[in-house]
Design brief:
Elements: E1 2-5, E2 12-14, E3 25-30, E4 35-41, E5 43-45, E6 56-62, E7 68-72, E8 83-89, E9 92-99, E10 105-110, E11 116-123, E12 126-133, E13 136-142, E14 147-156
Antiparallel strand pairs: 1-6, 2-5, 3-4, 3-6, 7-10, 8-9, 9-14, 10-13, 11-14, 12-13
């Protein structure tokens, strides 16, 4: 789910008001700041709108017990227009993405306790970097052609 905000009071948003189960935990990732705001249940605080962007775009994902994709950088939907497929199987997070020639394509992945990043492979694009910031792994890809690429991120337990 993606939620946008252009201003208003700095209160909180209840997951129930978004049609989500208030008993479950959700990751909230803010697209423009490229930051995981945290894991929340019931509701999450909006915080201040950064004047640099004059808006906030929240990518909301139900928390899983394994590494999962939080968002991509291609579009404010956080993956809605570029992700073709994402799946978790056998300690691997894999997917297919539509990327644009010459643009750096970024995957933001949550790594829960008990998992460690091992490697990333990508057919059709170069892996420019992998960088971990707390529980979030950033993977940057780039291709000289607009195309669909297949990527796999492996983890150890």
């Amino acid at each position: 789910m993606v939620l946008g905000r252009t201003g208003g009071e700095n209160t909180e948003i209840k997951f129930e008001d978004l049609g989500l189960n208030k008993e479950r935990e959700y990751f909230v990732f803010e697209f423009w700041s490229r930051k995981l705001l945290g894991t929340f249940s019931g509701a999450f605080p909006l915080g201040e709108v950064d004047p640099k962007f004059n808006c906030q775009v929240f990518c909301i994902r139900e928390r899983q017990a394994h590494p999962q994709l939080l968002a991509t950088n291609r579009h404010i939907t956080g993956g809605g227009v570029d992700l073709v497929d994402v799946r978790w199987e056998g300690n691997r997070l894999s997917g297919r993405s539509r990327i644009v020639a010459g643009d750096v394509y970024e995957l933001f992945i949550s790594i829960p306790p008990g998992f460690a990043f091992d490697q990333v492979e990508c057919a059709g694009a170069a892996v420019l970097k992998t960088q971990r910031d707390g529980t979030v792994l950033l993977i940057s890809l780039k291709s000289d052609q607009s195309r669909e690429v297949a990527w796999t991120v492996s983890f150890r337990r």
